[in-house]
Write a structure and sequence with these properties.
Blueprint: H1 22-31, E1 39-45, H2 56-71, E2 76-82, E3 94-96, E4 102-104, H3 111-114, H4 134-148, E5 154-157, H5 158-164, H6 168-176, H7 178-185, E6 200-201, E7 212-217, E8 222-226, E9 230-232, E10 235-237, E11 243-247, E12 251-252, H8 255-266, E13 270-274, H9 281-291, E14 299-303, E15 307-308, H10 323-326, H11 332-338, E16 348-349, H12 354-368, H13 376-389, H14 402-408, H15 414-423, H16 433-453, H17 473-487, H18 492-505, H19 510-522, H20 530-536, H21 539-546
Parallel strand pairs: 1-2, 2-5, 13-14, 15-16
Antiparallel strand pairs: 3-4, 6-12, 7-8, 8-11, 9-10
Helix pairs in contact: 1-2, 7-9, 8-9, 12-13, 14-16, 17-18, 17-21, 18-20
Protein name: Lysine--tRNA ligase
EC number: 6.1.1.6
Enzyme class: ligase
């Protein structure tokens, strides 16, 4: 399914008390626990690669639940933990600078990463030399993504939580309950021996994370350890063999314990997570929370991952796109709208068919303002969601159709773009200046979309100067007849059909006739579907060009 082809909400009716928007159902589950304000909504990520659009799923799902709760009068805080004390286990193939440029590993100081395998992300130099660490660089990118979408989140560093002592009490609690921790963990993980202690110190000698703790003293707040090898997938990161002592602030909990430790420390009320965590990660965290740490885990919500251009997001394969890149192609409100869709449904974010998503958003917006008829459910959904996806509700706003904006993008003349848009009725004479300006801003986005996807709108309209075209007598007559047909007033499909009929009447090769048209307008041998394209241009210009008058 391409972006924009799904209905606005595909959930079945659930009875009289069924909410039209999924976030309200989640808000009901949170309120049922009678939480104190502020309600804490959490997400999280380990800084192992480029923070792409797929990672934003968790932020946006949390955001809409937060908005639903705010509508009910609650104070809500949305936090996003960067698991930046995790060890770097392998080198990423691609990275992103703070300007959103994706680069290969060879384009940066890769040695800064390669020499630091096994060390926490916040102890590794930033390969771009712009932040204090690789972990901080990554966290800044996550914060930027949220900021670009207007989502207020607090990015929380795990390293800072450990070093400040925020996680010290829960860490001691888990160590004091090591026997129960081993018993619970054995249900979800193989090879949990009787000597297992749930803490991973940082070796004071080599700086790497080690998983071998030989003893602990929670009253003193210390553990004894041996720096042993760290398994990283099919590879092994060598330990240095050092035997030492570390405080509870000089290491980290294993991830299955760290997740519930974050919940308890931050007071988390709700956390959405991808379906990959639903079978093992969430049940183990839930079990540890209740049976090792003696507290109730937050309200959960599993969401489906979405694909990009029909394939899974993959930094190593290069199938990624950043929020900043997407916002060069469409408005933030359109992207926010994409994330309002049912989280239980898998869907594809198809860059090549963004026009469908934008068209769907424009219709959704018209339904909200009562400018387009819709069924009762669509209307209720638009009324509920629209205020959450726009910065300001403005009935005077104008939306130029995305593909028409792409056609306008074939010329770089701003005045001409506005002139054509007004002649075609997309901008009225009484439109506020700000509305016209924002409407025309879509042209730049649509032009960028056409250029990046090399689609049928990626052409340069030769507006100021007529290209040279070898037109014989019979073709000249045919072009004049086509001009007369267009002058009489016909839509794009009718013009397209007439191009075929005109060529047939004059016994002109079909490819040659279309080629002449493309040369006259683009100085190219091919171009967009000619009939609809000509119908979208101002008629006087089309007639002059077909009649070879300039």
């Amino acid at each position: 399914m391409s972006a924009g082809t799904a209905p606005m909400d595909e959930r079945d009716e659930g009875g009289d008390d069924h909410h039209v928007f999924w976030a309200d159902e989640v808000a009901d589950r949170i309120e049922a626990r009678d939480p104190d304000d502020p309600i804490i909504i959490k997400g999280g990520i380990s800084p192992s690669g480029v923070p792409h659009l797929g990672n934003v799923n968790e932020i946006m799902r949390g955001y809409f639940v937060a908005e639903a709760l705010r509508d009910r009068g609650h104070e809500v805080k949305q936090v996003f933990t960067a698991d930046d004390r995790d060890p770097l286990r392998k080198l990423p193939r691609k990275l992103a600078d703070l300007d959103g440029n994706i680069v290969e590993l060879g384009d940066v100081n890769a040695g800064a990463l390669g020499r630091n395998l096994g060390k926490p992300y916040t102890d590794i130099p930033d390969p771009f030399d712009c932040c204090d660490s690789y972990g901080e660089h990554f966290s800044n990118l996550i914060q930027q993504s949220a900021d670009l979408l207007g989502v207020p989140i607090d990015v929380v560093s795990n390293t800072e939580m450990y070093e400040s002592g925020e996680l010290e009490d829960v860490t001691a609690e888990i160590l004091d309950n090591s026997e129960k921790a081993r018993e619970v963990l054995a249900e979800y993980q193989d090879k949990v021996d009787a000597d297992y202690i749930p803490f991973n110190p940082i070796c004071e000698e080599c700086g790497k994370i080690t998983e071998t703790v030989t003893d602990f003293d929670t009253e003193a707040g210390t553990v004894e350890y041996v720096c042993t090898d760290l398994e990283a997938g099919d590879n092994t990161i060598d330990g240095c063999g050092h035997e030492g002592t570390a405080t509870l602030r000089e290491g980290k909990l294993p991830w299955r314990f760290e997740w519930p430790a974050q919940w308890k420390t931050l007071g988390v009320d709700f956390e959405p997570f991808g379906k990959d965590h639903a079978e093992g990660s969430w049940p183990s965290g839930e079990d540890i929370a209740r049976n090792v740490m003696d507290f109730e885990p937050p309200v959960p919500m599993t969401y489906e991952w979405f694909t990009l251009n029909g394939k899974p997001f993959s930094s190593s394969e290069g199938n990624i796109v950043l929020v900043s890149e997407v916002l060069e192609l469409l408005e933030p409100e359109v992207l926010r709208y994409f994330f309002t869709k049912d989280p239980n449904k898998a869907r594809d974010f198809d860059i090549g068919r963004l026009d469908l998503l934008v068209d769907e958003f424009d219709r959704f917006e018209r339904i909200y303002f009562g400018e387009e008829s819709a069924d009762e459910r669509e209307t209720a959904l638009a009324e509920r969601i629209y205020p959450m996806v726009v910065d300001e509700i403005r009935p005077e706003r104008i939306r130029i159709p995305y593909t028409f904006a792409a056609i306008l993008g074939m010329t770089d003349d701003p005045e001409l773009r506005e002139e054509i848009a007004r002649k075609e009725g997309h901008i009225s004479d009484d439109a506020p200046d700000w509305a016209a300006e924002e409407a025309l801003a879509r042209v730049e986005r649509a032009q960028t979309w056409a250029q990046r996807t090399s689609n049928e709108y990626d052409y340069d309209l030769k507006r100021t100067e007529m290209p040279e075209a070898d037109v014989d007598a019979e073709t000249a007559v045919a072009l004049d007849e086509l001009a007369e047909f267009i002058e009489a007033g016909h839509d794009g499909d009718e013009i397209q059909e007439e191009i075929y009929e005109t060529a047939k009447r004059h016994d002109i090769d079909m490819g040659d006739f279309f080629g002449t048209g493309y040369r006259l307008f683009f100085d190219e041998e091919q171009g967009p579907k000619l009939g609809p394209f000509l119908s979208n241009l101002d008629r006087e210009f089309v007639l002059r060009r077909l009649r070879r008058e300039g």
